[in-house]
Design a protein that fits this description.
Radius of gyration of chain A: 20 Å
Number of domains of chain A: 2
CATH class of the largest domain in chain A: Mainly Alpha
Number of helices of chain A: 6
Strand order of the largest sheet of chain A: 2-3
Helix content of chain A: 55-70%
Oligomer: homodimer
Order of helices and strands of chain A: EHHHEEHHH
CATH superfamily of the largest domain in chain A: Winged helix-like DNA-binding domain superfamily/Winged helix DNA-binding domain
Largest sheet of chain A: 2 strands, antiparallel
Chain lengths: 136, 136
DNA sequence: CGTTTAAACTACACTATGTAGTGTGAGGTG
DNA sequence: CACCTCACACTACATAGTGTAGTTTAAACG
């Protein structure tokens, strides 16, 4: 799977996926392997959703390599190919790299600004890192 | 104007705009106010492009608030509403902020990794910043 | 006037996403 | 065995963004 876009006006998983895709993924990440019906029932708690709609989107996620499908006798079971943590790890790394490649000093400066309100622990980490870099 | 997407598999302006949009913007950012014809001629140096295609895309950029159009007697003149520097400044800031908001410590850690290969000047800047933060 | 040409209007293609109708087939039950 | 249910497959349509380009309109200039 290769994520294509990072959406600026969204938050969380909606930055990487469509709205329904994101909801479905979140359900699968916060539960066991599920059938389409299972997922639909979860979705219905918030808003009634057509079975076929859920199926189509889930199958597309399989095509994209986000979900894996295991076909049982009567109902297929779906689960994510990777954990939410792995996903966020991968994406944040990719995006950070892209940002550095694309903007370099600009990005670092903005990061510094952002650090004004950041966790002191992060600042400590940064300090350590700089020491380490200077020793080279 | 509000950029919606940051494309991961592209580079430069193509991360924010369509391919033709990006080419046109780049031309307008590296030259004076131009007519559609002027832009088309520039584009033709690389690849012949239909006049109407150029016009449509340029007008869409006006609609989006990226270009401004000044209608003359026979031909309208176009120029960007902001400079490339301003644009990159804004976008890198927005993206950095989003990255920090979305990933927090993860993003900082990745940034630190990226710093391994970074300009020593950046590292120096970082060090200054950290000193400053610690004094608070 | 008529010719040229820029601009407007309109349209179609392609992709991604959300939505949903119809068809099909496997299994259980009377 | 016939039938019915239900999960899945197949297909289709809508919307939005982008690239492309044909047709029509209108303005300037010889």
């Amino acid at each position: 799977m290769k994520i294509q876009q990072f959406k600026i006006n969204e938050t969380g998983l909606n930055r990487f996926f469509g709205s329904l895709e994101a909801k479905i993924l979140d359900i699968l990440w916060n539960g066991p392997e599920m059938s389409i019906k299972d997922v639909k029932q979860k979705l219905d708690q918030e808003k009634s959703t057509n079975f076929n709609t859920v199926m189509t989107v889930m199958n597309r996620l399989v095509d994209k390599g986000v979900l894996v499908k295991r076909t049982e006798k009567r109902s297929s079971m779906f689960k994510p190919l990777f954990s939410k943590e792995e996903f966020l790890q991968t994406q944040s790394k990719e995006l950070t790299k892209d940002l550095m490649d694309e903007f370099g000093p600009l990005a670092v400066n903005h990061m510094l600004d952002a650090l004004d309100e950041a966790d002191p622990v992060l600042i400590e980490k940064l300090e350590q890192k700089i020491k380490q870099l200077k020793e080279k």
